[in-house]
Design a protein that fits this description.
The protein is an alpha/beta fold. The chain is about 30% helix and about 20% strand. Strand 3 (about 65) and strand 4 (about 70-75) form a beta hairpin. The protein is globular, with a radius of gyration of 21 Å.
Length: about 325
């Protein structure tokens, strides 16, 4: 017999370019709950503004998509994290808007989950439900745009108002348990294997002579561009393919590599349904991350995505992925 209703406040857009932690958990959760209401007020700023001006009704009500036992709700008129962390009153305004917009879509009885450290504080504090939990996917205070101490203090308000806390890595749980004076239970990331067994027959690589190395993910502050460029330069008889969204601050550096080297191709962003095919065509998957406090807490979904296709994986090393060392080859330096 299935459990109760789950209302989950997500840190990721429903139709994200990548399947994030909650998206891979959904097939399992849908077997455990009668109904799930998935709420997000997080989206890319360009997408948010475009959506509001193309559909002015979303200034006054959320976008609601109903499926058999899943309801996806998106609230658009909220302030971006980067701006709100410099003017925290904006978080309070956004949190109030979210609560007003979503109240009438909530079931009478439910368990509440949240995986954003401050955006949904008003909902966590004010909604009456049977049980509340917090799932921490990243060390938000370690992002370059974050104001560390403010981020931690806002997150603690969430933690103080829930019954139990989880983290996506052992390192995150260790850090947060110390910061919040509350136990965090590690639940590492994983992927829905079935998603990666679809759309594998969109084409053929029988006529491809050169080997292909692939990176799928964000091209952002945690990318080791020097390592990437040295790899592209050294293995000039190999094609490198990069798929993902480039952070504005990294565009010039990344474009420099693309311009200088002919054996690297950037495919831009792709729908997640296309990713299994792209991975199935590759010979090696890479994770060229820069060591940092942020990366120490990462349980990388791309490691499991590559592994789902049986790809040999080359990754830089950090302690969190040590238990999966049979899945990848360690890159010890440049």
């Amino acid at each position: 017999m299935k459990a109760k209703n789950l209302v989950f406040f997500s840190a990721y857009p429903h139709e994200d370019l990548f399947k994030q932690r909650i998206h891979h958990m959904l097939p399992f959760l849908l077997r455990k709950f009668q109904h799930i209401t998935l709420i997000t007020a997080v989206s890319y700023q360009k997408e948010r503004v475009s959506k509001l001006f193309r559909n002015p009704k979303y200034f006054f009500s959320p976008q609601v998509v109903r499926e058999e036992n899943l309801t996806k709700i998106t609230v658009y008129p909220v302030f971006p994290n980067r701006i709100s962390l410099r003017l925290p009153i904006l978080f309070k305004i956004s949190s109030w808007i979210i609560l007003v917009f979503i109240r009438r879509y909530l079931p009478e009885k439910f368990i509440l989950g949240v995986c954003h450290p401050y955006l949904y504080l008003r909902a966590v504090k004010n909604l009456k439900c049977e049980y509340k939990f917090y799932d921490c996917p990243d060390l938000y205070e370690s992002f370059s745009w974050s104001r560390s101490q403010l981020s931690i203090s806002l997150e603690k308000k969430i933690v103080d108002n829930v019954d139990i806390c989880f983290g996506s890595s052992k390192y995150i749980c260790s850090v947060k348990s110390e910061q919040m004076k509350k136990d965090f239970i590690p639940i590492p990331n994983a992927v829905d294997f079935n998603l990666h067994q679809k759309n594998l027959s969109l084409g053929s690589v029988n006529d491809r002579v050169r080997k292909q190395v692939i990176y799928v993910g964000a091209i952002a502050e945690w990318m080791d561009f020097e390592l990437l460029e040295k790899s592209v330069s050294k293995f000039n008889d190999t094609d490198f393919v990069v798929v993902g969204l480039v952070a504005p601050a990294c565009k010039a550096r990344f474009q420099g590599i693309l311009t200088k080297h002919k054996n690297i191709r950037f495919l831009g962003t792709k729908k997640y349904d296309e990713i299994p095919f792209l991975l199935s065509q590759a010979d090696v998957g890479i994770i060229p991350f820069l060591p940092s406090e942020l990366i120490k807490g990462v349980s990388p979904l791309k490691l499991f995505e590559y592994a789902a296709h049986g790809l040999p994986i080359v990754s830089v090393y950090w302690e969190e992925i040590s238990e999966y060392k049979n899945l990848f080859h360690i890159c010890k330096g440049h």
